[in-house]
Amino acid sequence: MGARKRLRANKIKEENKSKAFASLKNVPTAPRKMRLVADMVRGMEVNRALDVLRFSPKEASNRVEKLLLSAIANWEVKNEGERIEEHELYIKEIFVDSARILKRLRPAPQGRAHRIRKRSNHVTILLASKMADDTKE
Description:
Number of strands: 3
Order of helices and strands: HEHHHHEEH
Structural class: alpha+beta
Radius of gyration: 19 Å
Strand order of the largest sheet: 1-3-2
């Protein structure tokens, strides 16, 4: 690895130490279905997002809820002794990336075969505090 690349990688690592985020890899749900749930909660206050996810009928909402709880726990570790309610935590970023695709064959008429693509995804949630955003501006 070159010097510039290593310096850039170290800078990104240092920036990530101050952020509260959580990521979920290789979720066996199509990214399109997961993005519907991610779009539902993007920009919401954390407690409201948890309520929306808890009562959503979509199967992907269970995984996103669990991931959001993990991101909240990560925030609490980085900000010891501080309460979520006072900081007005909200979901700053949530994005869904495509992961590996398992390719399977399904028998079709007249000796043919159709390809079945079983998609999976990666989800990342980044939390921010409205109080911290106000002080920066």
